[in-house]
Amino acid sequence: MAAAVVLGGPACWWRWHRRVRAARAAMVCSRAMASKTPVGFIGLGNMGNPMAKNLLKHGYPVIAYDVFPEACKEFQDLGAQVTESPADVAERADRIITMLPSSPNAQEVYTGANGILKKVKKGSLLIDSSTIDPSVSKELAKAVEKMGAVFMDAPVSGGVGAARAGNLTFMVGGVEQEFNAAKELLTCMGSNVIYCGEVGTGQAAKICNNMLLAISMIGTAEAMNLGIRLGLDPKLLAKILNMSSGRCWSSDTYNPVPGVMEGVPSANNYQGGFGTTLMAKDLGLAQISATNTKTPVPLGSQAHQIYRMMCAKGYALKDFSAVFQFLREEESL
C-alpha cells in the first residue's frame, strides 16, 4: 500500500495541480472572459447601426447613445437602453465602443462636458472604432488612463456591407494584455481582429489602407471609363480586369460602374456605402501623417485633391465610388 501511495502520489498531485491551474486561468483576465454584461455603444450612423445590432444578435445588452435621437429609436424597439449622453453610457457600462465621424467628434464624446470621462468607472474598457488622427487617439488614451480606464483604437475596414454581415476587419492598437478583452466584443462584429501595436497603430493601419483604397478606386474608374470610350462593354472589361493583373477590390467587389455589379452603391445611384466626405477626411489624415513623417505620397495627395473636388461639386453625400461618375462628367480634368 505504501509503495502504491509513493507511486500514485505525484500523479495525483499533478492532476490536482492542473485542475487548480485551470481554475485560476479561468479567473485571469476577467474582462476577457466576462459574461454578456451590458456594452455601451456610441455613434449609430451608417457603420455604428449594424455593428451595434450584431452585438445585440450575439446576446449582449446594448446601452446606446447618438447625438441624433431618431437614430436611437430603432434600438429602443430592439430592446436596447437609450441614454441622454455619453456620460450616462459610461455610468451604466464598463465596456464601451464608439464609432464617430471625425477627430473633433471623438474628442467631444470622450472629454466634452457630458463626455464619457465625466462618469467613467475605473477599469473600464473603451474601444474607439472611429477613423481619426493617430495623435488624437494617443491624447485620448492618456486622458482615459488618468481616469484609471483603458483605451484602445480599433478602426474598421469593409464598409457598410461587411458591417451588416459581421465581416469587418478591426485594426487594434493599445495595451497588448487587453487585446483579448477587446477581441471578445470585436469578433461579434468582424471576422478579422488584428493587433497592430501601441495606441495609434490601428489608426495608422487604417489611414494607409484607405489611402490605397482611394488610389485604386480612382484607377479602376479611369480604366473603366477609358475602356468604355474605346468601345468595350463594361461588364466584359470588368471580367477581363478581374482575371488579369489589374484586379483589385475596387474592380471585383465594389465596381464603380453602374450596371456591372448588383448590391453595390454604383447600382443604387451611389447611395449608401462609404461617403465621399469621409474618404476626403481620411485622405486628409493620411496627408497630415505624411507631412509629419516627411513621407512622399504623390498619388495619395492627388487622390485627396480629387475627392475634395468631388465634395465641392455636389458628390459629398454620394459613395466614394462615384468618382467614376465625376470623371465622366468632368471631361476637362
Unreliable runs, pLDDT <50, ≥5 residues?
1-7, 20-34
Estimate the helix proportion, in percent.
40-55%
Radius of gyration: 24 Å
Say what oligomer this is.
Answer: single chain
The count of β-strands is 9
Structural class: alpha/beta
Principal-axis shape: globular
Strand proportion = 5-15%
Give the count of helical stretches. 14
What is the residue-averaged pLDDT?
A: 91
The N- and C-terminal alpha carbons lie at a distance of 95 Å
Q: Helix and strand succession?
A: HEHEHEHEHEHEEHEHEHHHHHH
Name the strands of the widest sheet in spatial order: 3-2-1-4-5-6
The description of the largest β-sheet is: 6 strands, parallel
List the helices and strands and how they pair.
Elements: H1 2-27, E1 39-42, H2 48-57, E2 62-65, H3 70-77, E3 81-82, H4 86-92, E4 95-98, H5 103-111, E5 125-128, H6 134-146, E6 150-153, E7 156-157, H7 159-165, E8 168-173, H8 179-186, E9 190-197, H9 201-229, H10 234-241, H11 249-252, H12 276-292, H13 298-315, H14 323-329
Helix pairs in contact: 2-7, 5-6, 9-12, 9-13, 9-14, 12-13
